[in-house]
Amino acid sequence: xxxxxxxxxxxxxxxxxxxxxxxxxxxYGEPTPIQAAAIPLALQGRDVIGCARTGSGKTAAFALPLLxxxxxxxxxxxxxxxxxxxxxxxLAMQVGETIQALSRRMAHPVKVAVLHxxxxxxxxxxxxxxxxEVVVATPGxxxxxxxxxxxxxxxxxxxxxxxxxxxxxxxFADELSRLTALLPARRQGxxxxxxxxxxxxxxxxxxxxxPVRVDAPAAPDAGPAAIEQHAVEVDPAQRTPLLRHLxxxxxWSRVLVFVATRYASDHVADKLRRTGIAAxxxxxxxxxxxxxxxxxxxxxxxxxxxxxxxMAARGLHIPDLGVVVNYDLPRSPVDYTHRIGRTGRAGxxxxxxxxxxxxxxxxxxxxxxRQRQRVTRERIAGFxxxxxxxxxxxxxxxxxxxxxxxxxxxxxxAAAGGG
Length: 419
Ligand code: AMP
Description:
This protein is α/β, with parallel strands linked by helices. It contains 16 helices and 14 strands. Helices cover 38% and strands 15% of the residues. Strands 3-4-2-5-6-1-7 form a seven-stranded parallel β-sheet. A seven-stranded parallel β-sheet has the order 10-11-9-12-13-8-14, with helices on both faces. The longest helix is centred in the N-terminal third of the chain and has 15 residues, at 58-72. The site of adenosine monophosphate has 14 residues, from α4.
């Protein structure tokens, strides 16, 4: 085993040598603000509500203390000690991989079971046969497996909710209350999300014991300013040609485009493909195998554009994703935060472009208001809207966090190219 840098700042957080080594091995130099704030509290056994922007290292903020427990206090052999709930299948796979990778240097191997729908249940049942110390799951499939007696949750000491506000909203309410009823009353809870609406906060409090709320300040390099936001006025019918134009003129190499429906996802991807741009749809009607392939292709660079529904808005980490486009605006300001948070991750810069029309102008203003940020309306030569928009709020360039001029310039270049 290679030597562990004892002076790593991760050692100062109180983590075991195996985990400090794993963090260093993964190239983590300094703990991110959410890690620095949450890990010591989690190690003390406190319940934590962690609020930090997307891409800020939240996974390791709960994975490291979780593994530390297993490393230092070996629980009963192969009983499920930690349960991590996530809202989507892709996030389950991603979180499972991170936990497994961070456990690599531990003296006793940790078994991590990743359980989600969309794939056959039988291999998951087989995989659970010998037990698993860590279960990472979407709620519906986990309940199926509980009902089939494939997994028991009565030894769970640690409950993690990743993208907690999503798991605590109505869509998951029944499943979540069934699951929490199966857990021991005495347990630790770590809930993480980029957003916590007040109603959600009350629900979270009810599931936790005297929780400490940690609002991690943005690191100088990883704050929201790392995402540069643009709003382009365009008639709805012109959005696909404009998108194609921006992709080509800006030489965008990896783009995530959000649309409102599965139909639009197929349709826009199809249109881009017909003009020679490697694009694919990503939505809930696709098989899990197809979803995995699309994501893998986007990550590898085989695919240039992924056109997705909000299913892709939460938690997904796509390295070097430079641009997010809101082809259709999201329904809520919270969804906007999560969508644009797919870019500008781990200290990288990102560009978020929203298409706004006369019909959606009022809705975008609401998003701006909640974000407490004005975004100047722009027009691209050749794609100016014919419909008149209601007068936009006075442009305030100071409001746009335009620290990184190069990205902005790219958009301008795109505009110039359209003349
Ligand atoms: P997450 O917010 O958990 O999705 O993490 C976003 C990205 O940040 C992932 O690629 C992590 O590997 C990376 N990351 C997490 N913690 C650190 C750290 N302390 N230093 C550098 N990168 C990190």
